[in-house]
Here is the input.
Amino acid sequence: MRKLITRCLLLVVVVVISGYCSLAPSAKGQLPFSNSVDLALVGAKIYPSPTAEAIANGVVLISNSKITAVGENGTIEIPPRSQVVDCTGLTLTAGFWNSHVHFSESKWQNASSLPASQLAHQIQEMLTRYGFTHVVDTGSYLENTSAIKQRIDSREISGPSIRTTGLPLVPPNGSPFYVAPIRLPELPTPEEAVNLVRERIRSGADAIKIFSASPASPDQPAIVMPLDIAKAAVATAHAMGKLVIAHPTNNAGLNVALEAGVDVLAHTTPDGREPWDEELVRKLHSAQVALMPTLKLWRFELERNGAAEETVEEFIAIALQQLSAYSRAGGEILFGTDVGYITDYDPNDEYILMAEAGMTFRQILGSLTTAPAKRFGLFEKTSRIAPGMDADIAILGSDPATDVHAFSNVRSTLRAGKMIYQSHQA
Here is the structure.
């Protein structure tokens, strides 16, 4: 027994709570996905939801992938079979959503045949190390991303749940200049829009993405999708029970998206150099459109194209105004970074910029949890730390209520009660 305790102490994974002693996962952070183990997370500060009162010293019990109990330490009886994990000094929230990602880098090619260890490492590097238990891919090859999704869903590898749109649909001659030489599928007529959307959904797309205005050239105005084509695409997707995400580019594209009835804007629109006025914000809010800010994108994109710092700061200032205006009006915000297109995977800058736009830590938490879960139809299963919910949990090294950087200080990520990431600090 003494040898066992010594070994555990060296690994910093012994916990002794209420008379129980058990081993936490290894520093690699990968409990076998098939290992059905009950957990008791003990001693953390818990934010059960973005609106609920925090539990200062809490306990979360997990069994068979579900949360079975949540409460103050000392009020919850820990079953003898549970593996107890000491979370003293840490913070627990529901697992995060990144609602704007891309599996489009070359390293994801041939996903069905990539070695499992390589694919798992890539997923951890881009997503699960940052607490993401759910992601929405808003532009990649459908068959390839579906293969990633299938390998996770079959439990061959650990990873987040994935929803994907497949490749975005664009107006005639509207492939964005920055994806060249790739040509995105074009919608030349309303009839073709109907056919292509139906085909895409029947092939397994979870949502549809359109470019309501597309920057086909860096030197020319964006090509705006004809409204009748946009309406046909949106109506077809809605008839088949799917959401539509629009890349608006500028205010002209934003207006097409609004009139066509899209559900989500993939970005703010600093390209248009126009702030969002009260009337536009009112229309967006009235239409219940959700917004993915992707604030970090603008510096990344502009700097790699050689823009002056003054231009970068102008873009960011406009994007901050647009997010601030919509958030203050009660608009729905979905956290998203464009990661996978952006090659810097760390979301910390996005959190900082959202705070600069005036969002509180609870609003940011909502954009990471309850808002996307509601929008994508999983609110009854996930996004809160509550009995009956899937045990999708982010364990943070500090408290986001006092430091927004805490959102990216992820110590462990659990999906359905299984450890899919654990830092060496955990």
